[in-house]
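User: Before I run my own analysis I want an independent prediction to cross-check against. Here's the chain; please return only the structure tokens and, at the end, one sentence I can use as a sanity check.
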Amino acid sequence: MEGHLDYPGLTDDAARPTWPQCFLGAATPRAEADVVLFGAPFDGTVSYRPGSRFAPMQMRVESMGFETYSPNRDADLEDRAVHDAGDLELAPGNAVAALGRIEATARRIYAEGKVPFMIGGEHLVTLGALRAALAAHPALHVLHFDAHSDTREDYLGEPLSHACVMRRAHDLLGDGRIHSFGIRSGTREEFAWSRKHLDLHRDALLGVGALCRRLAAEGTPVYFTVDLDVLDPSALPGTGTPEPGGATFRELQAAFDEIAEARPTIVGADLVELAPQLDASGISTAAACRALREMLLLM
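Assistant: Structure tokens:
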């Protein structure tokens, strides 16, 4: 179908997605949507435990356990124009091809005057969406929640790795336009480099409200990427590289609340690094679903 040419592997224009084919509440027809949600099920460069390619599918299934209404926002996804377009078809192990297809998809969404929101997948998938966001919004800044700085020049000789995604983002954006929060893991060299070139906030999500108020006042377009290992493993053990000492879910929610109050111009977003099969309890997927609902309501 023609829609599959525009969005390889995704639903076409006529489709009104229904659960469990879509994330709960994201059932606006694509032509009427403001935000297009899509999955990027790729984990071909993970350095420890794979499985994040299963996250988009599993989150859709388990979203039925949630209400569309958020008492924090006093807002309901059913009142938002969000279309869940399904998952891209990404060749396992081919990072270049995966990033190319993600970028092409996000560019198409921008061309339609809509905002892309991607569910990973590993964190490298952010790079494809970020390339498209920068083309659409040249003054772009990145708001980055993560346990890891992801600023290696390469990982075992490979520059396209989830351990290098913010370094590749810096290649595109330059100094001072990546704002990283929650960072508590990395090499000595990564921390030295990040302190010099990024706006680095270690170990906490404190200060995100002040940053977002400044970005909002300046009219700066923001791409928001959340690696779920920013959460402590006690809150989300189902991730490929868990790192103790992270945020509680309440702290993550408080950060979302601060962003919502500041109202920066979010022009793209993603949620990455859930590996649902690593947590048989389902708690990790539940936390990811809740985070996704709250992030969509920020859009």
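Sanity check: The beta strands are 35-40, 69-70, 75-76, 82-87, 115-120, 141-145, 178-183, 199-202, 221-227, 265-272.
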